[in-house]
């Protein structure tokens, strides 16, 4: 298995509320800095996204990508790359662990492989920045109740 980068944050909200924000792809442009457009292409029998097209602008990296999502129970979602202009692969997950009725630990894991050559150390640093920004944005979005 490829190396992955992981980070966790505690959000002052119930796990269901956190997952509600994670699953609301249409609102990603409102709270994630990098996602400029999000379109659900396919849903499962429960109405959860199975394939999502994302238009990303992360400064040096601009991409139009499609991700396939797998939902495991109520507290875990993972994704893998279907197609991209810039990436060879992308695998990630959010794992939610309730720490009380009103607090949830969220762990975000990410592995990215770009089509252009990049040192492993630089790639891990980029993954860490993406993860930390996403977790901070998620926390702010959930806790603001927006």
UniProtKB/TrEMBL annotation:
<dbReference type="InterPro" id="IPR023393">
    <property type="entry name" value="START-like_dom_sf"/>
</dbReference>
<feature type="domain" description="Coenzyme Q-binding protein COQ10 START">
    <location>
        <begin position="11"/>
        <end position="138"/>
    </location>
</feature>
<dbReference type="Pfam" id="PF03364">
    <property type="entry name" value="Polyketide_cyc"/>
</dbReference>
<protein>
    <submittedName>
        <fullName>SRPBCC family protein</fullName>
    </submittedName>
</protein>
<dbReference type="InterPro" id="IPR005031">
    <property type="entry name" value="COQ10_START"/>
</dbReference>
């Amino acid at each position: 298995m490829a190396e992955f980068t992981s980070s966790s944050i505690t959000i002052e909200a119930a796990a269901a509320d956190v997952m509600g924000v994670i699953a609301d792809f249409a609102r990603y442009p409102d709270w994630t800095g990098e996602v400029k457009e999000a379109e659900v292409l396919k849903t499962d029998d429960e109405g959860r996204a199975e394939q999502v097209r994302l238009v990303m602008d992360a400064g040096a990296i601009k991409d139009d990508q499609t991700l396939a999502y797998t939902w495991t129970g109520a507290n875990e979602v993972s994704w893998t790359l279907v197609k991209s202009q810039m990436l060879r692969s992308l695998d990630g997950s959010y794992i939610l662990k309730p720490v009380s009725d009103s607090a949830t630990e969220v762990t975000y894991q990410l592995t990215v492989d770009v089509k252009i050559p990049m040192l492993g150390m630089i790639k891990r640093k980029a993954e860490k920045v993406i993860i930390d920004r996403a977790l901070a944005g998620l926390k702010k979005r959930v806790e603001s109740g927006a």
